[in-house]
Amino acid sequence: VTVMGPGCFSILVSFLVLSHAVEIKLGYVSAGLYPSGSPAPWGEDMLSATKLAINRINAAKILHPHIISLPDSLIFEAKGTVTGSLERALRMMAGNKVVAVLGGGWTRVVEAMATVDGTLWDAGIPVLSAGASSMTLDDRESFPGLFRTCYSDGDVQPMVTQSVVSGIRPRSAILVASTDAFGKGGAAVFNKTLIDVGLPLVGYAEFDSIDRKTGELRGDDCAKSTDNFEYVCEAVSRAFASAAEYESHDSNTDNALLLLSATGPSTQCALACLSNLSNSTKAVLSTEIIHPTMGDSEKSHEFFDRVVTGAEGYMGYIPSPYQATEKFAGFVSDFKAKFGHHPDPWAAYAYDAVFVLASALKRSLRETPEFFGTFGIPGIVDHLASVDIYGVTGHITYAKGGEKTTKGKAKNAKTSPSELRVALMRLRSYGNPKIDADGTLSEKNFRVVGMTAEEGENCGNQEAKIDCSHYVEMGLQPPVDGSCSTGSDADALLCSSNFMHLHYDGVRDLVCS
């Protein structure tokens, strides 16, 4: 009889674990549909990119001999709403012993998924989100297992707002917000930024995107419901009325900057309401990019016309991953080959989320192979907190202030990357806007009027090139008359501002003169 010591037993267990593949199951909460049930292409692309990343990781044997799987049975479509069905789906995922849940898309959905007293965190399951950008998710104590690959509005909104204010020089601001987590979070950032730049907020109103008591759609279903449209318009009118009553204001809102903090469908509704107002604003800045759809009915046509009319001067910001890299080009090429179209900007962040998870899993496998796939994955949240990789969207790390986040210090990590890059878009609704065959307002009516600088760009250098293929293939007009270099453009209000040369690195905002 041979008696093995503890060390030999550990080696044997490790060998047995590593000698066969363990299926690492993931769960996914999809954002492929809007609350109204209409398709959300950006959410569909995020799920497609997630599946593409899983295939790439398995093919490259990054976690060999283990494989990552995302069974269809563990994919739940939330439609951007928080319901009992979502909670049941999360419980089912936890019961299936998934190592992480990805997706979410909407802030209110991710908030329910990742809360400290929620089903997933109780089971020690982290959440990786690529699309929920609200600052309400910045709090690590409230969301201890949340890791985002997208930016936080708490970082980017102040930068964008300050740039817009310096570029167009409004005399005041009016704020309209939805009452959900995304709307309230954005409103708080807007309000603080206005105080910082010394711009008075002269009007404010809020409305429900989804009824908080009944769960029924309100602002998020204006295109189909006259009652919902009138409900949001009443809030917009209240905001302008309070501006007119402001003691130090002369009742003229023509020089005001209108700020909208709401979901995409609700933002579209608020813009449609502007077509009913006699007063116009100098510009509109929103936390969301809109995608107005005309549809087939006469009512839809009427609503579409109102959106286009009210959106004059409308601006919003979108994610703009680093494009001039082999990794990004490879991702776009692979995505197009697999799915037949150019990926939405959000898709790249979804792709990176899987690689962030794989990086943490690989470290866990290396440190504790005997437990991997047998007794759970020890320290997975700490391993996620210390991730430091370069994905297709750029550098991803959750360290604060440029400092390393060490094992056991997940509570000190940010919930979003310490670096970001965005593009500012302006809707050009002059004349007759182009309408696609499916009734959608063509995104050729959007123009990139500025973007945060890429590494190596020369501030103010007319020859500083930006790869425009990403925008051209999506049907977007690239910056500055298509030249992809810095310069002037009569149509771009912000060319006189510093937005094109802003870069956030987790420590400070860099403004190039």
From TrEMBL:
SUPFAM superfamilies: Periplasmic binding protein-like I. It is found in: Membrane. InterPro entries: ANF_lig-bd_rcpt, BCAA_transport, Peripla_BP_I. GO terms for cellular component: membrane. Residues 47-401 form the Receptor ligand binding region domain. Its main location: membrane. Residues 1-21 form the signal peptide. It comes from the Eukaryota. The keyword Transcription regulation does not apply. Keywords: Membrane, Signal, Transmembrane, Transmembrane helix. This is Receptor ligand binding region domain-containing protein. It comes from Amorphochlora amoebiformis.
